[in-house]
Amino acid sequence: MATSERLQKVMAQAGVASRRHAEELIAAGHVTVNDQVVTEMGVKVSSKDEVAVDGVPIGREGKRYLLFYKPRGVITAVTDNKKRKVVTDYFNDFSERLFPVGRLDYDTSGLLIMTNDGDLTNLLSHPKFEIDKHYVAKVQGVPNRPALQPLKEGMVIDHKKVAPAKFNILSSDRKKQTAIVELTIHQGLNHQVKNMFKAVGFPVLKLSRTGFGNLDLHGLQPGDYRELKPHELQELKRLANG
């Protein structure tokens, strides 16, 4: 007898999407099992069942891991109902169906991992895994270290506890009343970096994620990408597993 597994897990293992995004595709009616549209969670399928997304049967793909420098003005999604540019537009020539690990805001640039490994995506995105994420922000105002001290002590924003962060003031421009500040966090709350700076009185004018765990953007320009090296992937998994 063929072993049955939840539909969203099978989709993630096939490299279609992360489990969360697979659930969104199912709920939106994009998924069929044996030519029947499935919109409910909890459906189980086996190797004997034919699963398709938008009419395209899923298959077992080789795993791909890419480091992508997301430009500003690009949506971190696989589709957008407003027809805006999305990150997957940069990977149309790939036979694998790649999806982003986590999110960066539309107006935020920087490091994004693209993969078809749903299990790794879940591992890296889970709140309990404390992987450092490095950002560089241009902020309005010229802060000193005491003004930014609350970032280091932890904060409550929108009734949510924000873990302590590390910061470093890289430069200040008193004439323009702006500064460049590096911030390291390990959570992934929505708009977290922008909300943290806003809470201490220095709203973000420009933001880029420059590092994720052991990875950085060295040698890349916005819109560029490269394959992760085996030792980078191994170290990333090690960090995710604590």
Describe the secondary-structure layout.
Layout: E1 5-6, H1 7-13, H2 19-27, E2 31-33, E3 36-37, E4 44-45, E5 51-53, E6 56-57, E7 65-70, E8 99-100, E9 108-115, H3 118-125, E10 133-140, H4 145-153, E11 155-157, E12 160-162, E13 166-173, E14 178-185, H5 192-199, E15 204-212, E16 215-216, E17 225-227, H6 230-240
Parallel strand pairs: 9-15
Antiparallel strand pairs: 1-4, 2-3, 2-5, 5-6, 7-9, 7-17, 8-9, 10-14, 10-15, 11-12, 13-14, 15-16
Helix pairs in contact: 1-2
Domain RNA-binding S4: 5-68
Keywords: Isomerase, RNA-binding
GO molecular function, one term: rRNA pseudouridine synthase activity
Account of the protein in words:
The protein is 21% helix and 31% strand. The chain has three domains: 5-57, RNA-binding S4 domain (Structural Genomics Hypothetical 15.5 Kd Protein In mrcA-pckA Intergenic Region, Chain A, Roll); 65-127 and 215-240, 2-Layer Sandwich (Alpha-Beta Plaits); 133-212, Alpha-L RNA-binding motif (Alpha-Beta Plaits, 2-Layer Sandwich). The protein is elongated and about 65 Å long. By secondary structure, the chain is an alpha+beta fold. Strands 7, 8, 9, 10, 13, 14, 15, 16 and 17 form a nine-stranded mixed beta sheet that branches. The protein has helices at residues 7-13, 19-27, 118-125, 145-153, 192-199, 230-240, and strands at residues 5-6, 31-33, 36-37, 44-45, 51-53, 56-57, 65-70, 99-100, 108-115, 133-140, 155-157, 160-162, 166-173, 178-185, 204-212, 215-216, 225-227.
